[in-house]
Amino acid sequence: MLFAVGGLFALYEAWHKFQDPHGIEGRWWWVPLAVLSFGIVAEGLSLRTAIRESNITRGSSTWMQFIRRAKSPELPVILLEDFAALLGLVFAMFGVTLTLLTGNGMYDAAGTALIGILLVAVAAILAVETKSLLLGESATASDVRAIEAALLGDVHIASVIHLKTMHLGPEELLVAAKIAVDGTDTAEEIVTAINAAEARIRAAVPIARVIFLEPDVFVPERATVPAP
Length: 228
Known about the structure:
Number of helices: 7
Shape: rod-shaped
Structural class: alpha+beta
Order of helices and strands: HHHHHHEEHE
Largest sheet: 3 strands, mixed
């Protein structure tokens, strides 16, 4: 809402400036440049800190992958906010500088319009990512593979019939799976296999804290993850 309302208001202001463009007048013309210069430096330092902190958890992922796959929204939001603020200040500096040099207020209006478009775009990205986090994102592909390998690490588990994962929080993952067992296994063997599988899953993916495993008789046509 913050980015969306700010972006729409900037576009509203840009529309009025396009309707009635005018230059920057008065002896205090240098004040906007000084304020924008200070803002660019401050936001640049803030963005550098956000990048440094994000690199700790980003690993080998690209920045776009990091923003899309992050299960904790704090760092992506801060990154986008700092990036949008810095780029917005650059747009403002562009508009103000050209307006001061040419006396044409259309440059100021164009800078304001670019800021509005930028804020609306960031709002849309945040809305999509926040929605996925609220509805519950599944585990990453690497975590899913690790869970499947952990499940199949027992002779009593023939295959994985179904596997569903969902993040309950940034550091809490729910795992629900239907596993195929041999119809000749005893109840004690199945229970032992399930307990061992849960332990392997937690060892492979520590954030998998809620695990539900349902045994079923092995039917090859129903299995989604075949045994190795």
